[in-house]
Design goal:
The chain is an alpha+beta fold and 154 residues long. It has two domains: 64 residues, no CATH class; 84 residues, Immunoglobulin-like, CATH 2.60.40. Helix content is 20%, strand content 46%. The chain contains one helix and ten strands. A five-stranded mixed β-sheet has the order 4-10-9-6-7, with no helix packed on it. It has a three-stranded antiparallel β-sheet with strand order 3-5-8, with no helix packed on it. A two-stranded antiparallel ribbon has the order 1-2. Strand 9 and strand 10 form a beta hairpin. The longest helix has 31 residues. The radius of gyration is 29 Å and the shape is rod-shaped. The chain starts with a helix and ends with a strand.
């Protein structure tokens, strides 16, 4: 009888420890969910076939990174170089920045897509064309690039 009581107490103690671990993990998750770059976790608790408590952590994989923590840059994809000569009367200016940035290409506002990609077609004048591309974010920070495009008609 004493052995049965001891086994029951051990199982109750193990379950209490498992519950305590779940609570501590939950508090840690709540605390860390406000920190940038961390992921949310779910914890499953249960009892295995022998009656011992089990804990399983599952990574949900949801990044918790606020937009303001993303690196702010302005990368021009097209044209691939900042100085180019073309025989076409238009040129596609495309690039990559943060999705919350506002882009201006020669003072025309262009909105990036959800991935931060943007593009704008510029009509060229014969000769040298200076095209200024500016990305701005809500903090007032700006990134600028000047492109020089020479247009020589055929």
């Amino acid at each position: 009888m004493g052995r049965l009581v001891n086994m029951t107490l051990i199982r109750i103690l193990a379950i209490c420890v498992a519950i305590l671990v779940v609570i501590v993990i939950s508090i840690g998750i709540l605390y860390r969910s406000d920190s940038p770059g961390l992921t949310t976790q779910e914890t499953d608790s249960g009892v295995d076939a022998s009656g011992s408590p089990t804990l399983t952590n599952k990574n949900v994989g949801v990044p918790n990174e606020p937009t303001s923590a993303k690196v702010f840059s302005l990368d021009i994809v097209n044209p691939p170089v900042s100085e180019v000569v073309t025989r076409e009367s238009t040129i596609v200016i495309s690039g990559l920045t943060r999705q919350d940035a506002v882009i201006t290409v020669d003072q025309y506002v262009v909105e990036p897509d959800i991935n931060g990609l943007f593009q704008y077609v510029v009509d060229l004048s014969e000769g040298i064309n200076y095209i200024e591309v500016i990305a701005s974010i809500s903090t007032g920070e700006q990134k600028k690039t000047m492109l020089v495009v020479g247009y020589v008609p055929q």
